Amino acid sequence: MSPTGLAIIYIIIWWIVFFAILPIDVERKKIVKVDGEDPGSPENPKMLKKFLYCTGITTIIFIAIYLLMKFEYLNLRNIII
To answer: Whose CB has fewer CB within 10 Å in the chain, the N or C terminal residue?
Structure first.
């Protein structure tokens, strides 16, 4: 597979994992200080922590998928319909 295809697969997996991790560890007990501010928005969303966890989890999943494709355990071209 080309490097572009591998990059696209990695990015798709990263976004799926990111949206799965995003609501974890969010505290929504916030006192509204500014008019128009949403009281349900998190005080500290911890985005750097979530970014690092997401990248690590995605890398592990991507390596597993890459190895399955490399050793032809995951090959969609050989599926007989």
So the answer is: C
pTM for the full predicted model: 0.80
17: helix, strand or coil = helix
Which residues fall within 8 angstroms of residue 8, CB to CB, at 6 or more apart? none
Nearest alpha-carbon partner for 12 in 47, 56, 62: 62
**Rounded to whole angstroms, how far apart are CA atoms 17 and 23?**
11
Q: Is 25 left (phi over 0), alpha (psi -120 to 50) or beta?
A: left
Percentage, residues of the chain above pLDDT 70:
93
